[in-house]
Design brief:
- The chain is mainly α and 311 residues long.
- The chain has two domains: 5-107, DNA polymerase, domain 1 (Orthogonal Bundle), CATH 1.10.150.130; 123-298, Intergrase catalytic core (hpI Integrase, Chain A).
- It is 53% helix and 3% strand.
- The chain has a two-stranded antiparallel sheet.
- A hairpin with a 5-residue loop joins strand 1 and strand 2.
- The chain is globular, with a radius of gyration of 24 Å.
Length: 311
């Protein structure tokens, strides 16, 4: 009997939202990728159900993704093609766990992604970025506190935007956050981050819940509270502004500060398991992307054994 693909995709999306506690953005992305697969499958294999899916059909779908051109003449990047296959594998894994007959996901190899260099800020770059902020205003103090907090905690920008004032324990200089997949972790404030957050909050005359608020218009009781919370996009824009102002050699983002947090810890001797926990990574392999730029032993090996150093 042919299973209704639309119904199965809806069940999978509900599973992601309810049981896996995935973010709305993640669920939306999976819906988009699987929707494209469904449209292709129903057109190319109209008499087939998901139980009929095989490796050759997946190969044809990958060719379709590789050759895809939208109305504007835009093709799909390799990484975007990979996201479609990752979504399909996750969907098939869900089906098999729920006793549906279909192609085992392990039979689908992931495309090899393009290697990207890891962007992070050196000490001088960080100093230049922080010192670019004009701290004479409340908004300026907020911006400095945001930069310091991102570098001190390694928070994702969405996690930072969700912070409330009562979450921060300035005595212990730590607080808990709920990250991807509903995973809880503890993050820590450096002396510098605690100093600038304190200065910012001391200047605040309101009692609004959000830790970081916007100043695009006057704060009143009518528009206060959640309506004044700084959005993730606003945080991204303000960091972009200061990166340009500081004339940094790379296009840094909030995630670049997260990378900088991790590389700073590892470069100074922190063990990778601890950094994994502070970043909120589910798998150690995700954290290991930092080790190739932070392993001091590699530099010593090169210095000791490369003949170009013996001249």
């Amino acid at each position: 009997m042919k299973e209704n693909l639309d119904v199965l995709i809806i069940k999978f999306l509900e599973y992601l939202e309810i049981e896996r506690n995935c973010s709305k953005l993640t669920v939306r992305n999976y819906k988009f990728y699987l929707g494209r697969f469904r449209n292709w499958y129903n057109k190319e294999c109209p008499t087939k159900g998901i139980e009929d899916l095989n490796v050759d059909m997946v190969r044809r779908f990958r060719v379709y993704l590789s050759d895809f051109v939208d109305e504007g003449g835009i093709t799909l990047k390799r990484v975007t093609q990979s996201y479609h296959i990752i979504a399909l594998r996750s969907f098939l894994r869900f089906l098999i766990r729920n006793d549906y007959t279909t192609l085992p996901p392990e039979k689908i190899d992931l495309p090899k992604g393009e290697s990207k260099s890891l962007k992070f800020l050196e000490k001088d770059h960080l100093r230049a970025l922080f010192n670019t902020v004009d701290i004479s205003s409340e908004a300026g103090l907020r911006d400095r506190a945001i930069l310091e907090a991102l570098f001190s905690t390694g928070l994702r920008v969405s996690e930072l935007a969700r912070l409330n004032r009562d979450q921060i324990n300035f005595e212990t200089r730590e607080f808990g956050v709920i990250g991807k997949g509903g995973r809880a972790r503890i993050v820590f404030l450096s002396d510098s981050a605690a100093f600038w957050l304190t200065k910012y909050l001391e200047m605040r005359a309101d009692d609004f819940k959000p830790l970081f608020i916007r100043y695009s218009k006057e704060i009143t009781p009518e528009n206060g509270g959640e309506k004044m919370r700084l959005t993730t996009r606003s945080i991204e824009r303000l960091i972009e502004k200061y990166v340009k102002k500081a004339k940094l050699p790379i296009k840094a983002t909030p995630h670049t500060l997260r990378h900088s947090f991790a590389t700073d810890l590892l470069s100074n001797g922190a063990d990778i398991r601890s950094v994994q926990e502070m970043l909120g990574h589910k798998n150690i392999s995700t954290t290991q992307i930092y080790t190739h730029v932070t392993n001091p032993q590699l530099k010593e090996v090169h210095k000791k054994f490369h003949q170009g150093n013996k001249r």
